[in-house]
């Protein structure tokens, strides 16, 4: 029904628990007829599981100047999936103050890294105490993230299983022209969230809030796999025109709106 052409959430070997290279992701994307993918490797608390001596994988998140915009006819966006690290909506790296000079004019490492990215997904995975608060605190965390000019997509918002005021979150996304992710991998791994995923999608449809249907692929063969997500959207009659990842043109427009360029 939907024939989606963009996968805006894929990982490579730079995410220490993923298994494929950029070239492998692009090759599969081209074979499946995608118009674009985004490389959105983790920046935040995912990395210490593999490299406990380093808090963030910094060197993997400076803009790769030799990475072309198109490979095998596929538009390749340079993106990032950055961790939400507290209930204020702070992003990973914001606590790392950097010294300004003639080459660096940013207050913290998060801003420095995000300035090099064409799209930013902010996601909650885990931080100390992240399961200890109630609906009000959880909701305000997401609202604060959605209000940030350097965030484009709220990543897999239902995956954590916490309780939220979803109408308030969708309203914030609409106010700030942000996208809500419908994450195919999370739907598969969190079947208990099926009802919440449908409710969130229905709210987005009601309020004309764009969604991104993404694979969250951690191996190349899952790039462009949206079946669980599109089945759910088909079931509720979700309008295709609200899927920002339906094609490259639509996704570029949604990114421009997110960044205040339209």
Mean pLDDT: 91
* Order of helix and strand elements from N to C terminus: EHEEEEHEHEHEHHEHH
CATH architecture: Alpha-Beta Barrel
Into which percent range does the helicity of residues fall?
25-40%
Look up the CATH topology: TIM Barrel
> Which structural class fits the helix and strand makeup?
alpha/beta
Task: State the domain count.
Answer: 1
Biggest sheet descriptor: 9 strands, mixed
Question: CATH top level?
Answer: Alpha Beta
The percent range for strand residues is 15-25%
State Rg: 17 Å
Layout of helices and strands, plus pairs?
Layout: E1 6-10, H1 22-31, E2 36-39, E3 42-43, E4 70-71, E5 74-83, H2 109-114, E6 119-123, H3 135-146, E7 153-155, H4 166-175, E8 179-183, H5 184-189, H6 194-207, E9 211-214, H7 227-236, H8 248-258
Notes on the protein architecture:
This protein has 262 residues and is α/β, with parallel strands linked by helices. The chain has one domain: Alpha-Beta Barrel (TIM Barrel). Helices cover 30% and strands 15% of the residues. It is built from eight helices and nine strands. The chain has helices at 22-31, 109-114, 135-146, 166-175, 184-189, 194-207, 227-236, 248-258, and strands spanning 6-10, 36-39, 42-43, 70-71, 74-83, 119-123, 153-155, 179-183, 211-214. Strands 1, 2, 3, 4, 5, 6, 7, 8 and 9 form a nine-stranded mixed beta sheet that branches. 45% of the residues are buried. Mean pLDDT is 91; it is low at 48-54.
């Amino acid at each position: 029904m939907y024939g989606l052409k963009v996968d805006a959430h894929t990982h490579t070997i730079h995410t220490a628990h993923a298994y494929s290279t950029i070239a492998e992701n692009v090759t599969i994307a081209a074979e499946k007829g995608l118009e674009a993918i985004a490389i959105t490797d983790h920046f935040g608390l995912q990395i210490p599981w593999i490299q406990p001596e380093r808090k963030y994988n910094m060197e993997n998140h400076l803009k790769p100047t030799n990475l072309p915009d198109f490979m095998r006819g596929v538009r390749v966006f340079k993106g990032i999936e950055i961790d939400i690290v507290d209930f204020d909506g702070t992003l990973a790296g914001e606590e790392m103050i950097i010294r300004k000079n003639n080459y660096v004019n940013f207050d913290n490492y998060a801003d420095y890294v995000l300035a090099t990215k064409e799209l930013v997904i902010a996601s909650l995975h885990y931080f100390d105490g992240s399961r200890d608060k109630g609906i009000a605190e959880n909701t305000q965390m997401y609202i604060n993230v959605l209000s940030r000019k350097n965030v484009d997509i709220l990543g897999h918002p239902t995956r954590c299983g916490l309780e939220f005021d979803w109408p308030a979150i969708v309203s914030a996304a609409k106010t700030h022209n942000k996208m809500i992710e419908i994450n195919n991998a999370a739907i598969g791994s969190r079947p208990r969230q099926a009802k919440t995923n449908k409710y969130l999608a229905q709210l987005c449809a009601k309020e004309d809030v764009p969604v991104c249907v993404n694979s969250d692929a951690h191996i190349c063969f899952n790039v462009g796999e949206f079946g669980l997500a599109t089945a759910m959207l088909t079931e509720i009659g979700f309008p295709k025109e609200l899927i920002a990842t339906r094609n490259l043109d639509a996704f570029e427009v949604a990114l421009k709106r997110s960044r205040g360029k339209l």
